[in-house]
Predict the structure.
Amino acid sequence: MYVARRIFEIIPVLIAVTFIVFVSVRLVPGDPARTIAGLEANEVTVEAIREDLGLDRPILTQYFVFLGKALTGDLGESYYYSTPVIEEVLRRFPATLILALAGLAISVVMGMVIGTLSAVNKGTALDRGTLVLAIAGISMPSFWLALVLIIVFAVNLQWLPAGGYGTWQHLVLPALTLGLFGAGTIARLTRSSVLEVLRQDYVRTARSKGISERTILIKHALRNALVPVVTVLGLQLGAFLSRAVVTETVFGWPGIARLTVTAVLDRDFPLIQGAVLWLALVFIAANLLVDLVYSVIDPRIRYA
Amino acid sequence: MARSLTLNDNEGAAAESAGGKRGFWRSRAVRTLLRDPWTVLGAVIVLLFVLMAIFAPWLALYDPTLGNILNRLQPPSAEHWFGTDGLGRDLLSRILYGARLSAIVGFSAVILSGAIGVFLGAVAGYYEGWTDTVVGRAVDTMLAFPGILLAILVLAVLGPGLTSVVIAVGIFGIPTYARVVRGTVLSVKRLDFVEASLALGNSHPKILVRHVLRNSWAPVIVLTSLNFGTAVLTASALSFLGVGVQPPSPEWGAIIAEGRQYIRVAPHITTITGIFIFATVLGFNLLGDGLRDALDPRSQDR
């Protein structure tokens, strides 16, 4: 019931996003019909192509045609690749998914380990270091971090490839670039919620029952720390995607973020629309997932 | 960045005393600020950045756009402290002028997004009802969109260049201002003095500006520091991707984009320039974070 209501609420946002993108790509200078026709084509040919693409019709009509087709899974054909957009999007999406999950894993594992350590060692140099690390993490330009990682691990040490896609070695540097960004923020959150939990009465009770400190940390503290961490993951998804755009570009990672950027630069209308619609859907689905994960982690949260 | 930025009565008093000339250095907020070494570091970095931006023409020993091709890709030396780039231009001079560009973009973008965001947030929070719904939906829509794609789209429409980057990056910051100001306005307007003012016969717009907004400035200042850093970061990323400020302009992101092809023979171009972006953004974030702790008595978990 809750999921149904959320999906219903999301529809106006989805329509707004796609409409804005639809209108703004048509404001981009340059005529795709002329680009496709080539420089030597005469006006008649260009007009024929324009008609063929439906670009001569009013913008609202074009939009509704797009929406209607999108509902049946037809996102049109890419001007640049001459393949169905949905195919291109689905072909590129797994690479982004792999990168995102690997980056996420690095963020969460590093962040929660460092955050817990710093909560347990509150007030020490390690603890203060964590707070600064968190701010440093969000202040670092990801393209620069990527290039520094390449200089160190690919150029100097020659341990890992500087770019490309295929094996796990190709994944390490891009995933680190993406993952280090969130680790600091998560460490900071983990720290404050672990500290919060360790002050609670039930932790004192658990201690007095002789339960080991390690069990208390894992069973009580970390479980409760997961709630704000999951919230922030949901909130930061947009920033995460922004970083993915840059990361994929630097490492030549064939994902959907890079596809979208090149589509904008190529004025590939259908591809831009399709890719953005897809990204918006993924974004919304991820947020929904975040909400559902809550009730699994914390049974007190139940949606009426 | 969705930490609580709310306001209460104490803070209004602290704000008042911080605003007055007398006792400024002794006010609670300023003392808290100066006590934290990281905040001081942030403030010092921000100050240095501003000085670099203002005095770039006097500090730079070389022309940032003219180089000696025979002297290209030189590592740091006494003559060229940060070495030279692919066209033999002095990297230090380019970075100094780049600070100027970053400052212009950051400053203008923050004013743009601040003006629009504060207005939208204030109206939504004060009047609630349908205005709130419309603004809320608009903010949701903007946040549902990966910011950099929005910026790239705006740049594709407007074409590359400094003004376009300001607009693209400025739009990026609107939703955070709107959201934060809406929240504080919602809490401030429930305070007694607002009702008293209304009872005295003052009009809503007047109350909104005179009383409600005046008491909501603390989170706006914090956000401005954080958003300035984000603006510098985003602008450099856009230039790096080739859609922002174009070479030969010494924009930091553009310098790194150019330096990228020499990463094997002259890594200093990329490394040094990036440290400046990193330090600048870090400075604004440290300052913003310190300001939040100083202005909000409730977030003292450090």
Residues 114 and 207 of chain A are 23 Å apart (CA to CA). Chain A touches chain B through 50 residues (CB under 8 Å). Residues 85-120 of chain A form the longest helix (36 residues). Chain A has a mean pLDDT of 83.
